[in-house]
Amino acid sequence: MLVAISISPSGTPLAGSPAPDGGVSDAVAAALQVVRDSGLPHELNAMFTNIEGEWDEVMAVVKRAVEVVGERYPRVGLVLKADVRPGWDGQLTAKVERVEERLR
């Protein structure tokens, strides 16, 4: 399965949480670290983080990433889009390659 997630903290950072410039990049970086530590194939772009893996392992990573942000902020928004296609691996890049091929 492929998922695209966007995790958005909101509210005033909890005591001891870094947000010196009023931005949320520290919280987003903490969520991304959870994804990286999972070892699952993933990619970061300006709006989402894409993750590939089996349902349970991907959802466990998403849950932990939300929890990490929730340790820093009182409210966390999650946008998740999933492509559930059992038996297909390597689609993180293959889907893009199929589209790019049609543009050549």
TrEMBL record:
Residues 4-100 form the Thiamine-binding protein domain. GO terms for cellular component: cytosol. InterPro entries: MTH1187/YkoF-like, Thiamine_BP, UPF0045_domain. It comes from the Bacteria. Residues 1-21 are annotated as: Disordered. SUPFAM superfamilies: MTH1187/YkoF-like. Belongs to the UPF0045 family. This is Uncharacterized protein (TIGR00106 family). It comes from Nocardioides aurantiacus.
